[in-house]
Structure of Beta-galactosidase:
Amino acid sequence: MPSEESTLSYADGRLLRNGAEHRLLGGAIHYFRVHPAQWGDRLDRLKAMGANTLDTYVAWNFHQRRETDRPDFDGWRDLVRFIELAGGRGLDVLVRPGPYICAEWDNAGFPAWLTGRPGVGLRSMESEYRRAVTEWFDVLLPLLTPLQANQGGPIVAFQAENEYGSYGDDPEYVAWTRQVLLEHGVTELIFSADGGNDFYLDGGALDPAANPTMLATGTLGSRGAEAIETWHRRRPGEHFIAAEFWNGWFDHWGEEHHRREAAEAAAEVEQILDGGGSVCLYMAHGGTNFGLSSGANFDGGLQPTTTSYDSDAPIAEDGALTGKFHAMRALFGRFTELPELGSLAEPEPVLPAQTLPLTPGLELLSALRKPAGVASKTPLGFEELNCPDGLVLYRAQPILPRGGYQLRVDGLHDRGIVYIDGERVGVFEATAHEPLQLQGSGERAVVEILVENQGRINYGHLLGQGKGIRGLLINQRLSFGWTQIPLPLPDFSAEQLQQFSVATERSVAEPGFFSAHLQLVEPRDTHLALPGFGKGFVWVNGFLLGRYWARGPQRTLYVPAGLLQTGENLFTVLELEHGGDAIEFRERADLG
């Protein structure tokens, strides 16, 4: 019978695996950011880097998009298969089930239906929140506990919550996050993870004297020696693990692309390892925020994360082995025997560079007005409309004053395009929301506001913030009597996309739908660019690939071969600003 003692333990500052001294050399890869046809390949590359451990979060909203949905663990969501693939390659697995994961993922992994409940009390001892988490774990954890290493599987540790010291300071809640894992059959090591200094430990780590079996780990990108000294002072006897070493960084739309020199990142990792610690690279392979899964930060305004989650990681978004990969491999090789690279060192074949003409479909408003609307006296938010993501088209018919007036939107956290009687009059962004100065006739007019949910906040006290608008102000007067058309873009069917893409004679410069057909003999990876386009979304064979935005820094979208097929392939574009006449397939990524 397998033992139920934890595979990993620690004593006198050493990490032990089944009683033998062990150094954890890990890297994060998220199954939800990698096409499942590539799971094995990316795990092979992690192993080739010298890693002995895979780290992955579990994104609740990836498995249960709506409250009425049965949690889905099939196909792309087959978490068990991903973990078993890692185990088959001799990798240990750290599972981080949250429910809060941050990860620059939409809503930090929480479903919108949960955070939209008034008074739910996120990340606290509030009963409604704990009930929902427990019900989720009732489904999730029975899939994972049989995969524990002490039962013959690859999982050697579970994280309780995530970086709670960056959010709150309730030790009762932190203790509950550990207890709920135990109650669901977790017998392997349980750990917390917090920033690498006293402030974060104060809020997120349990007292080691009262909880000697909950290891505190660190999340950091530098000053590893200082973090180890902090752990020696605060957590004597524990082995220091950098559960997240940030060897790269993610990007926001409209900001600079992040790069970190390989030698500098490796020198910081070396400092941790030379200090006797263990390390898990975040990310080893970042992957892609497919669909509308990217989250957002807030620093004086919303900062939406790009579709690419390349993160300047050792294994690039398209699987390429970077200079950082080789630097980390050389470093890990000091502590483990390295496998041969073999064919992994060869570049992956890609589609040849080419340009594909686009056919304009329905004009933007004509298309988006087609689905049925929901009537209300005051505007309804995305959550009330059961629209987790995408767009909502709001419509009211206020009386516009004679002469000059101001038009404002209340409660907008993202981006709203304003139309009056079908004519675009302005754009509101939460980062620069000045009133529109307009002229009216004293008559009623149709005011439409197309609101884009650009990603829910994944870090900080604004976690769970709602999406949509609360009201329309004409000078100081509110408008009542609304119709809302929810447009959850990832749910669009092939029939809807085909309907929207019916060829029209409109100018390609106008916003709206576009389509193109690509014939392939052999599907291969490619990088999609949309020159001349402003902001919008792309589907590949009915799958929502992601957002694009001329604001950058990202200029191409990664298209894995698994989304393509032999024969005809359909590309559908929804442009919100101004279109172009072609899309390009490039052989290399351009992330800015």
Summary: The longest helix spans residues 127-144. The radius of gyration is 25 Å. The longest strand covers residues 512-520. Residues 125 and 173 are 6 Å apart (CA to CA).
